[in-house]
Amino acid sequence: MKENLPEIEAEIIAGEQKSEFAILINDTQVFSRLEERRFPELDDVLELCSKERA
User: Contacts for 42-50 with beta carbons within 8 Å, 24 or more apart?
Assistant: First the structure.
């Protein structure tokens, strides 16, 4: 991911639920594993980050 978006800083924070996985950009949730019922693919993450950056 760093190769595609070198200016992005990532941080892993444990959620309240064990099965929780979310992606937040500037404190705004842009992906939820619980809502989507799947983990994101790298292309999903890159697209979400690119949209927020634009």
Answer: 42/1, 45/1, 46/1, 46/4, 46/5, 48/23, 49/1, 49/5, 49/8, 49/25, 50/5
